[in-house]
């Protein structure tokens, strides 16, 4: 399935400025404290808001209310400080909705054109940083709609016909997720390409393979690096599958029950490049499965990246010394002049925690909600935005790290004799001699014990030593001992044998479009 990445906006929304505290000579008095920290009701914001009850704008939904909300309620319930990031998708949905309304004769073609032109103007203002986001207008929908009414007048008041903020927000969110998934898929492929290129530089380099963080068997470094590529491919597959379920249109479901007006939901779905409209209007506005699935896919990918980070941080330590990151992807210490830290990969490991936390937040948010829409769902956006931003950053920095490290071949090779990495291959030798595997396992275990006693490696045992353990050993046993011989004996599909790894590398180069 081909994807076209559209430009995504991940700028941080402006945050309220911290109160400025003037230096106070001598001791700090209660009066000083009160001056430095005014009451919450008087706190300033970075976005425009009404200064008094008299000047506060009437809510677009306020017809049945006689009083306005308090300042505390307004601050607590607003979401414009973060959902402004959906503006592009909100305008996109509004354009499709206006066109559909005109097509169904619910508004005139003239009104439609006026609305579309007004939305274009607002989008340009936002892109140029000239649009005033107002907190008293609560969210991205009301800000854009109120600005449209100010700009074009009566035609704009018809835009919300057969539409609720309930179906509007979930439409915006699905469109945003669709683009975000495309962006992540591109970053995953970039990391995969970098790993395959890195693996191609060390085709014959043998490294210790570990289980339980103890030395287990020798493996080719490209085999290990390609294991990351395989994990990333599954991450991409989960996101592709998630995108398929994201791509259904809730617009026109209204608050929860649909509408008695003759709208065409299939047309809006088509115009917004959705697969189809959602079949059940209650499900359409209350469903956040697509957010949960997206966050879950991100969490699994983040855990994979964290595992890469953990391995590379270990390998960069003096205790391992297997890889050296370049200065471009390293940091130093403020007190220890000699330090060179692989901080980017430590932060990859650390940021995985917040990605998993974002999933837990929305899972907990959704677990007690009755059908259909509930205001709690306003809280799904910040964890979603945070997860996507974190995963994009993690993928980017892992790619740069992979492009700026070198593996220390001499250090790795000098470390290989330790750990009896060829023991399992020796067991395979005995199986080929007709000895049952469990018996072979015991024989090799006794051979290793002899090595421990003699302080030598398996390949350094004399044939007589081996025969003292079991008479089946013959001179050809030495073709199985030593890490190079051991690696060359692997022949099963997907194994670390040289021919198998070369085939895996070639398959990935073809799949990812990497030229030789």
UniProtKB/TrEMBL annotation:
InterPro entries: Arg_succ_lyase_C, Argininosuccinate_lyase, Fumarase/histidase_N, Fumarate_lyase_CS, Fumarate_lyase_fam, Fumarate_lyase_N, L-Aspartase-like. Residues 63-357 form the Fumarate lyase N-terminal domain. It holds the Pfam family ASL_C2. Residues 420-488 form the Argininosuccinate lyase C-terminal domain. GO terms for molecular function: argininosuccinate lyase activity. GO terms for biological process: L-arginine biosynthetic process via ornithine. It comes from the Eukaryota. Belongs to the lyase 1 family. Argininosuccinate lyase subfamily. This is Fumarate lyase N-terminal domain-containing protein. It comes from Sorghum bicolor. The lineage of its organism: Eukaryota, Viridiplantae, Streptophyta, Embryophyta, Tracheophyta.
């Amino acid at each position: 399935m081909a994807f076209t990445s559209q430009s995504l906006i991940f700028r941080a929304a402006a945050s309220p400025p911290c109160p400025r505290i003037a230096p106070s000579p001598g001791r700090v008095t209660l009066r000083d404290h009160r001056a430095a920290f005014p009451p919450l009701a008087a706190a300033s914001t970075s976005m425009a808001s009404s200064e008094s009850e008299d000047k506060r704008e009437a809510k677009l939904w306020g017809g049945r209310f006689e009083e306005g909300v308090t300042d505390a309620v307004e601050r607590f319930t607003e979401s414009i400080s973060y959902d402004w990031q959906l503006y592009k998708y909100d305008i996109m949905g509004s354009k499709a909705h206006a066109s559909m309304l005109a097509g169904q004769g619910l508004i005139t073609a003239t009104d439609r054109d006026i609305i579309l032109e007004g939305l274009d103007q607002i989008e340009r203002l936002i892109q140029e940083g000239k649009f005033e986001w107002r907190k008293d207008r609560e969210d991205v929908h009301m800000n854009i709609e109120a600005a449209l009414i100010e700009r074009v007048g009566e035609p704009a008041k018809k835009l919300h016909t057969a539409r609720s903020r309930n179906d509007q927000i979930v439409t915006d969110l699905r469109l945003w997720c669709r683009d975000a998934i495309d962006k992540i898929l591109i970053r995953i492929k970039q990391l995969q390409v970098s790993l395959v290129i890195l693996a191609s530089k060390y085709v014959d380099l043998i490294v210790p393979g570990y289980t339980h963080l103890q030395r287990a068997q020798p493996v080719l470094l490209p085999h290990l690096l390609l294991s990351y590529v395989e994990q990333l491919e599954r991450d991409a597959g989960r996101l592709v599958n998630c995108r398929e379920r994201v791509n259904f249109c809730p617009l026109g479901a209204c608050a929860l029950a649909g509408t008695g007006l003759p709208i065409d939901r299939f047309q809006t779905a088509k115009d917004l490049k959705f697969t189809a409209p959602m079949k059940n209007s209650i499900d359409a506005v209350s469903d956040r499965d697509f957010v949960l699935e997206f966050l879950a896919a991100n969490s699994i990918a983040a855990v994979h990246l964290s595992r890469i980070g953990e391995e590379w941080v270990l390998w960069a330590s003096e205790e391992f010394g297997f890889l050296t990151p370049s200065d471009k992807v390293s940091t130093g210490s403020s007190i220890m002049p000699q330090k060179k830290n692989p901080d980017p990969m430590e932060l990859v490991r650390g940021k995985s925690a917040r990605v998993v936390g974002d999933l837990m937040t929305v899972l907990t948010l959704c677990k007690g909600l009755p059908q259909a829409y509930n205001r709690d769902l306003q809280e799904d956006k910040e964890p979603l935005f945070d997860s996507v931003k974190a995963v994009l950053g993690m993928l980017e920095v892992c790619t740069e790290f992979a492009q700026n490290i070198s593996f220390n071949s001499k250090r790795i090779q000098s470390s290989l004799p330790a750990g009896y990495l060829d023991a399992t291959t020796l067991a395979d030798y005995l199986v080929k001699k007709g000895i049952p595997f469990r018996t072979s396992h015991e024989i090799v275990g006794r051979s290793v014990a002899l090595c421990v006693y003699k302080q030598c490696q398996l390949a350094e045992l004399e044939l007589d030593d081996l025969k003292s353990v079991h008479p089946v050993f013959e001179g050809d046993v030495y073709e199985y001992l030593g890490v190079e011989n051991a690696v060359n004996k692997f022949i099963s599909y997907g194994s670390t044998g040289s021919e198998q790894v070369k085939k895996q590398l070639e398959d990935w180069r073809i799949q990812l479009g990497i030229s030789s």
